[in-house]
Amino acid sequence: MELIERGNFSPAEKRRQYRLLVEKVANAAALKQEFQRELKSIEKSLAAEGKTP
Known about the structure:
Mean pLDDT: 90
Radius of gyration: 20 Å
Number of strands: 0
Largest sheet: none
Distance between the termini: 39 Å
Number of helices: 2
Low-confidence stretches: none
Structural class: mainly alpha
Shape: rod-shaped
Helix content: over 70%
């Protein structure tokens, strides 16, 4: 965010840069949630087989 503020961008380009940043953060958060769900699924499978994760 600081780089966007300090950059010599037009107001329209600043908005575009902020939108891109928000999109990247949202995608990273979604990926993290998906990974956590997958990990829990694997742990449940291992527990059902009598193995400890």
